[in-house]
Fold each of these.
Amino acid sequence: MISFRSFSPFLEHKLVRAYPAWCLAILFLLPIAFGLTWAILPAFGYFPPLGFTSFSLDPWHDLFARPGLSKAISLTLFTGVTASLLSCSLAIFITATFYTSGIYKALQNTLAPILAIPHLSIAAGIAFLLAPSGFIFRIIASIVGWDTPPNLIIMPDSYGLVLILTLCLKEIPFFLFIINGALTQLNVANSMVVARSMGYHPYTAWFRVIFPQVYARIKLPIAIVLIFSLSVVDIAVFVAPNAPPPFVIMLLDLFNDPNLERRLVAAAGGLLLIAIIFAVIASWWLVEKIISSLWNYYIISGGGRGYGMHITKAFSYLILFSVSVMAFASLLMMIIWSFSLTWRFPSILPTKLGVDNWADCGLCSSLTNSFFIATLVTLFSLFIVISLLEFNKHKKIQTFWFYIPLLVPQIIFLFGFDLLLIHLEMKNFWGVAWAHWLYVMPYILLILYLPYIRFDSRYEQISYALGNSKLKTLLRVKLPMLFRPIIYAFAVGFAVSISEYLPTLIPGGGRISSLTTEMVALASSGDRRIISVTSVFQALLPCVVFIIALALPNIQARNRKGLAV
Amino acid sequence: MRQKYSLELRDVSIALDGNTIVGPLSFKIKDGDVVTIMGASGSGKSSLLNFICGNLPNEFSQEGRVLLNDNDITETLPEKRQVGILFQDDLLFPHMSVGTNLAFSIPQGIGRKERQTLVEKALADAGMSGFGSKDPATLSGGQRSRISLMRALLAKPQAILLDEPFNKLDSSLRQKLRQFVFSHTIKAKIPCVLVTHDIEDAKAAKGKIINLGIQ
């Protein structure tokens, strides 16, 4: 048995105790400062690495002179806002209809693994399902008797509807999860009893009494989804229109342009994107204020008790059914394609199956890169977050700062960060891991923060009183009791890292490939077999980690009722 | 004045997994009277209230009838029963102002002007005139409890259930609130069922006491 006590004097030293602060200053604040500075300055013509040393507004003139700019921006606005609004409201309707039923409990148990599936896998599956040569048209063809795919521009369609669908399939489960988290903080059952005793139909009672309280708690997730939908890159490569593309894809092309001057234009575009996001969030907030004041007026003037809500109920059933079928079908498509050797149009099923695709996929290095980056980054994030929370348990931590990487579109932030990596000659595996860490750590903090500060400190006091050191108390009492949130945070961090596209592409300079960068690179090849194999790996890896993460705490709790949830 | 029995329980028993936790129990209450149900925690007090207001979860099995003003409401939906309930947590809705909380419970079909008058009157009754636009979170414990009762009464219930409503208050406040609550249920002329484990509550209610533990 190791004696923990002998380490204690060393650990009590002031400078040692400050190591979370040191790490965060160097690893977190430095890249943020760098990333933001170099997102802003080049937009105004100042970019010494390329020889631009005087300020000017030329990048802005060039930006606004780009052909297709306004179309690209309207496409981004339409798809981003519609997808966020739809997925949020559908998740709310589904919760309102099902939250007391057995379906809802079953749904909550399956949500975590579904959330772990990267967006990109879903996007690929949707593409296989809906393309003119995809599964649905094969069924139609076999009935009507076509032998070539129809000549339709639906994959991608020029309005971005498939992009919206893909985003919704991924964001609805996210919102269901977040809303459930909010519900557990409320006294739902008794509030509903009170509202029903006043004569309100349960559905109406939920919307008037529970919904506003839930909404107040999901504003940050809504903002995160809005920002994500307005600036998503990897899915857009698969399912968004390309002439014109969404605004972000236009920016990525500008950044990658061989003509280096274009980087200044791209920087101006990045700032414009931030302005657009800001305007969207401000309008959302304004509309919300207007609706809530109308709402209050309605209640004071004697709002109805709400009967005849059967249509909404039927609607929720329909939505839940179609979302589940779509998600399931797209995953199934991906699995079938990964095993198919010959599958010509219009055959409904492959004519030849085998494991050859798996044997020849050549994904070994991408797979190991993805796995090791995700594991290292998540473990390090856990270490830093737990240290930070442990050393600051009597102070209030301003968590907002840690969410900055999530609140600034990746494309803008990463190009600035990239300059730092060039300075440090770190455009390699470690540079990629660093970038991933910036995106994983906020999620780990988000998940661990509440369980950690709510931990009953009397358990620690008892342990100290029994003569145990701080470290021993932490390792033998506190962390085992917090095992469930910790392992859950690990699974989330792992899944986040696996799905990151730009944080792998930009710092790696194309030399470090992960499953996600591999998939995007394969998108243009159109080789469905290899895309599917990559996509299955990409979905499977985080899913397996999630299933283990959900199972382990139950094993720990098998003879300990006090640890069960 | 002749008073009739307005709330009646007939041979009520509640079971969970085959074990009877309440009953069989029968009692009648007149308008303005209080019946106090006493018992230790886990004695099924709250289940009995849930049975009366129609919110007993499905995993419980129930027998017997509950009658309100001679109507059998055993199978009626909770929102159609006109039975109000008050918990130990005041459950004021945090997203509404104090006034909106009150207005929320006024029945449909009453005009805007009259609703406002009713809210003002309820605030005055609670000794809290001018508190209408306040955030419920800024009120003291006693104020919150009073608003909570006024809100329950504004819905014009035909009976009211009190689920340990004085539990969380300190003893001096508890006494004041008991008087406030019972004076209002008498004024509203409705039957009242009080569930508690504090004998002082039962004494203040001045009604019949049913002890669930000893049956």
Note: Strands of chain B lie at 5-16, 19-30, 34-38, 60-68, 71-72, 83-86, 159-163, 192-196, 208-211.
Amino acid sequence: MNISELQLDILREIVNIGAGNASNALSVITGKKVLITVPGVTRVPVHAIEDFLPTAPAVILHSSFTGGINLEGLFVVYPENAAKLVEQLTGQSINTEQLSEHLASDDEQNIIRSALLEICNILAGAFANAVSEMISEPVITSVPLLAFEYLESAVDAVVAAACQNTDDIFVFNTSIASDDQAAALDFFLIPTDGAEKLILEKV
Amino acid sequence: MKIRVGIAETAVVQGDAILEAIGLGSCVAVVFYDPALKIGGMAHPLLPSSNGHPVHKAPSKFMDRAVHLLYEEILSRGANPSRIIAKAAGGATIFKLQRIPNIGEQNVEAVQTLLQKLNIPLVAADFGGSHGRTVEFHVATGEMIIRSLRKGIITL
């Protein structure tokens, strides 16, 4: 499908408002002043997706958005920033090594893991609320998931689902940052099942 | 010489070269190798089958198409079909997604079935789990080196 510049602007604005709401929520939880970058909406050929994504290992939080839209959302927090975020949330000071040990454990009750999953829950909920208002339909978030991985590995299955019927996938991305990086993450959204068209029909 | 084999790409080389697929999650990297001639090829598909899906510019994104293209390519470079062996890695489930079927498992099943049909022995494989992998295939030695954050380095 050909998407015009105007339609790309509309998609960008939706991500902007949704991510803006998510960043406000992050600001409230962490007590930090946060800034978000102008979101990008890029059509990426499937063979070039690896070049498009950051290559360092990170805490990757996943939530699906369904209902009025079909979007797969990934919040990517780099280890040093994740350690700062955890400290901000739990008061527990940890370094990146301890962080990766905590996240490698399969213990569902692990406090570090729970804190980060809760962040995902809150950010996804804030994003969904804003988008839901815009399209006047409910948007449902899935149970949040966490992996400590390379983003390109974590995103494989989502990319696969997005490119069953096309060779190009849309990637929406934006970054949230705070002065001390205690509230800093990259946010990626990948529409599946032609969701970019659906959104445009609804706004 | 190191050659990156991206998602939906295939490459075949002879001699002292390394084929590399980075950041495999649910994707599977498949290697065909003729040890006598030291010709090696790698494919990096991400979906199990092109069944019912139109094939676009990147047919190698599907396992069935990628394996057949790789087989044709390595034969056209002079490999002997009776000597070709396979090695493969990947097919992890990083996130148990609710809406999306388990593509990693489907990819593993697809590659095993296709190799059986082509009568190519899968001499070594590292499949599944919940960890990502970066795979190097050293064409000169026939070694497959797999790196992951949580499982370290293994050589097949």
Note: The CA atoms of residues 33 and 148 of chain A lie 26 Å apart.
Amino acid sequence: MNAASRFRDAPGAAPRSLRLMLDGVPVLARPGESVAAALLAHSGGATRQTPVTGAGRAPYCMMGVCFDCLVTIDGHPNVQACMVSAREGMVIQRQIGARRLGDQP
Amino acid sequence: MSADLVIIGAGPAGMAAARVAAEGGLSVTLLDEQERAGGQIYRNVGAVAGRGWLGADYARGGALVQGLDHPGITHQPRATVWRIDARRGVIWSRDGQSHVSPAAHVLIATGAQERPVPFPGWTLPGLMPAGAAQILMKQSGMVPDEAILSGAGPLLYLVAAQMIAAGAPPVALVETPTAITHALPKLPRALFGLPTLIKGLGLIARIRAAGIPWYRGAADFRAETTEDGRIRFDFTTGKQSHSLTCDLLLTHLGVIPQSHLTRSMGLAHEYDAEQGAWRPTLDPWGQSSEPHVFVAGDGGGIGGAEAARAKGALAALAILHQAGKLDAAGRDRRAAPLRRALSRALSLRPFLDAAYSVPSAFLAPPDETIVCRCEEVTAGSIRKAACTGAEGLRLMRTSLRTGMGPCQGRMCETTVIGLIAEATDRPASTLGPGRIRTPVKPVTLAEIAALGPQPEETT
């Protein structure tokens, strides 16, 4: 799942000074960017597998429309990673299949 | 905290309206889903310095953001509106808690979303809309690496030029058929938008100068993941087949109004045949079929940022008049220059709509295409269902679950309509718009229950 990122840093981009955890692996993020952006900078692979066929998906629209970037953040399932700013110490999990009711914190 | 006016969306329309309304003496609550005001077009503009490669048009949004610094304006960031209730007001969510903002007047300025571009492989990691890549450029300082730009429309040229300026030129530009000759009769009016036209030609010149391979008249899109995780992009031009490899395949076929909120309120809507999309029915001030509800910006019909700014200000003047803060003569006097600006901003639109119309293969894609990304329903099964009785959006929804996933049809409705239109030989205009129910964005039952039967204002 950890293909190389499909993006590179723009000229003059700020350093990635925040540290998030994705399934136990550190992911660096830039202050002010969304969790989805940090995940795309980290890897070009899937960030979830769909409930219906198990197909891999990654953040797509980046503006809250498509819901393909759903991840679990700090125990909260089905969060749109593109709508949440990255913060130091966030714990993120890829979502494999559908969430269950008991997953709710 | 009750406000005279609640504005939903802090893009150019919402920001311009907030300033005009506040200066006119109204208290304004500005609700926006993002952390910072700006909308998609001016995303993050207030916080970015030293990104000259994004261009001067982008930087211009800064003044609108600064205009929000007014004692009459309360900007509520990270606020997701999920219902507008005629009696209670605007209901919105932040951090798992919902709030009600009662308002005498409501302005919906929720802007546009990208038109879905469905073809086999469009759901794979490594495919994104061109606008999504632009958001990453503006907000995260990230530039697409080894990317192909595909589809049609002015945004493709802009993104290509920005990528070139950032030192990461696209691998190729793959353009679907354009109808520039067909659009030429609209050109005389477009000349009123000459500066924009010249800017567009400048972008094209920069792409040519950078030597980017440019394929025209492309069709039969198909994407697959290669063994090393890259994207193989197959397409045809005429009788010739092409196969290119890239890391990121960006697609774009224009934008459509985000109408979930306006539709959920039961406002009157109409089909815009030139733009191939529904929009709320509005008077020249942006007033909807509900007298206290106004709509401004791309959410009321695609016009771009400059048009949105003018429409936002016009709606604010009408609301000031409705609220008794501005007489009709004053309203009309101040509206005159705005209407001239609006006319200039819209002069290019008929030409663009005609030149960059959507190829039918993207309205009714090949059978194997996943159309509903949430429920993973293919074009083939939708065609089959349409031929066996599911001749409308609701019937399709109940038989195949199209539009029942978390995106609530935002990514599939245009395609489901296109496929039903094709199968039943009816015009798309008779098949929509689909009925939308609240909540228009997912909220938990616990959050709704916490609002109580007769909620008091909570913030």
Note: Chain A touches chain B through 47 residues (CB under 8 Å).
